[in-house]
Known about the structure:
CATH superfamily of the largest domain in chain A: Zn peptidases
Oligomer: homodimer
Strand content of chain A: 15-25%
Largest sheet of chain A: 9 strands, mixed
Radius of gyration of chain A: 24 Å
Low-confidence stretches of chain A: none
CATH architecture of the largest domain in chain A: 3-Layer(aba) Sandwich
CATH class of the largest domain in chain A: Alpha Beta
Number of domains of chain A: 2
Order of helices and strands of chain A: HHEEEHEHHHEHEEEHEEEEHEEHEHEH
Number of helices of chain A: 12
Mean pLDDT of chain A: 96
Distance between the termini of chain A: 16 Å
Amino acid sequence: MLKVNSERLWNSLMEMAKIGATAAGGNTRLALSEEDKLGRELFIQWCMDAGMSIHFDAIGNLFARREGENPDANPIVIGSHLDTQPKGGRFDGIYGVLAGLEVIRILNEENITTEQPLEVVSWTNEEGARFTPAMLGSAVFTKDLDLEKALEISDRDGISIRQSLASIGHVGSRALARTFNAYYEAHIEQGPILEDQGITIGVVTGGQAICWLDIAVSGVAAHAGTTPMKSRVDPMFGVGEMLSSLDSTLCKKFSDGMITVGQLDIPGSSRNTIPALVNFTVDLRNPDDQLLAEMEADVRRQLTDIAAARGLTLRIDRHWLSPATPFDTGCISTVRTAVQELGYSWQHIISGAGHDAINIAKHCPTTMVFIPCAGGISHNESESALPEHVAKGCDVLLNAVLLRIAQRNVA
Amino acid sequence: MLKVNSERLWNSLMEMAKIGATAAGGNTRLALSEEDKLGRELFIQWCMDAGMSIHFDAIGNLFARREGENPDANPIVIGSHLDTQPKGGRFDGIYGVLAGLEVIRILNEENITTEQPLEVVSWTNEEGARFTPAMLGSAVFTKDLDLEKALEISDRDGISIRQSLASIGHVGSRALARTFNAYYEAHIEQGPILEDQGITIGVVTGGQAICWLDIAVSGVAAHAGTTPMKSRVDPMFGVGEMLSSLDSTLCKKFSDGMITVGQLDIPGSSRNTIPALVNFTVDLRNPDDQLLAEMEADVRRQLTDIAAARGLTLRIDRHWLSPATPFDTGCISTVRTAVQELGYSWQHIISGAGHDAINIAKHCPTTMVFIPCAGGISHNESESALPEHVAKGCDVLLNAVLLRIAQRNVA
């Protein structure tokens, strides 16, 4: 089995991490910033050194292309993103791009030619930290997000994507939504599952379904000192019962589900006033669309019952629903075969976070390869991954792509 | 039994309510504002018409005095405050001041002379809406709050109490902390108890003890989409269990206690992030100091147990503790005897809210008389009270003061 150059891959990651390095060992390269430009330029230089040609599309997605024997064949694309969160880590996104480059470097060293062109991509503004929404470049590529609308999106200082792209000069005419043979993305897990299980490789089967609810619970504002307990219509204790009920029942019933209450707000709150209104959010996730719908129904039923029993007024708005994204079984099987032939420990895993691959999966056969990260921590300067895992993830990526090239979507 | 002039008292209240009237039928006369000055001047005019002399102390507390046969006797003082909340009501505070004036008017009409001087007081800045803290004038009078410090307190526009007092001219040399024979304050209940019970008069036995706690519950911030439920240390659901536990147990155990969670805050919250920290407040009240201490201990025990079971870090800070303020048994008995002799329905009641009487109770024999207000609503333009209740409360005040004068602290 062909393996990658572990030291070269690690050194490339550490060299890239010098750009926008933070004192605590992280990285700040916000999308289309001066640091992002420097990171992109270093990557471009490495790709040109590897004999690749450089192309941009209208939203600044960067494609480095290694030509195939059949230039008209659809390219197999490998990549992720080079931008980071503010005080983000050295691996989130960057690993997927530089792992793609390492695949090309190995093919060059081994004098392996392929029928299909291979491209390594860095998608624009995956993080969404400077420009909202996240995964913007890949959504514009697939035309899920309108190009002109995206170009007008501005950061907090009022600088638009259009202006930022012009200032770094990374705009081109590569067609949006052009056909890919397949898309592969390697990434740190950004969760604790692989580390907890002592497993090296996550064979990613898709992205889970997500439902965001906005809950408003209204009662009657009253004085904390003059209103007897039995006279109160207190939404805060109602919300306490709601949270307690959801916490103790929902994920026992839906074992693959997740529930998070990340925001809670009491408008015009005062320490000695029973609130009139409590707002909170619910984030529900499940790998299965039908089970997510059942989770949502269960939340609605529990909250409705509790509100009714307490004389509270309840409003539930569905803010967002994103269906599950199953990855391509052919692509998944190339990854599974590669990891099995390499003899590394592995398990199937669901992508809990959003990735460009979730967007691209609607466009072409897609999958991902996960490696463990320490403590599951990401979007943080302390994000870290072991050189061994970084190399083995890239070994799997390399061999999966070779299987795809050979059209051996087996096991 | 002597009774007050119901129509005159009501008309005085409605006349005062024209100053700073709001569109929705409420009043805005913020402490020491132009409107407060006009309200004070109208009151002064009425007092002078009733043959009283006008005096101020250094914090602008306004005393209208009806001389007694023995000018050296300590005065019996009746009153409350003329300032209002922004968009407050027509009765909160004003009723106690104008009820005091009505008592004087009746004594004049009936040619009743008294050994003790009688004074009707309007305390400065009871509401605390423009200048913090509330009940400021009475606290300066009793020297619980330092005069010089109080004079330097500024509103949001940077205007100090010293400047505001100078501009309305209501500053004098009446001694702070001079001795009173007794202090009586009539007030709307600001709670629903009397209305719910169909009772006309609350014989107020004191102010309840109050304990304010600041709670901080810390867990581990993590991604809502990549962190399995069993790996989470989620403070939000911990807080849900805490609220649910307190709600379902505390006030069953402490039947006269009250608990309010008025504020809850998640620093840097995000819909799809498990919070690192949840802060919330707890307001505990009980008429009995010992029972309040037991309530606090119970809260601490429950929260500690729940945090420990969930691996959460808990911090509980006591922000404020105000002991119970029992009113004077002699003064209370004059009110009880008066209401019984008048034949009005009555019950003992605890003052849930703060009042100037709570401050003055530390200084001299003190009590209060409560009347119902619609829905228990106060600090609101819709605050209202029935003319019948307004008159009957003043009847009780008049006869209680006459009993005090006669030193008949009976029943």
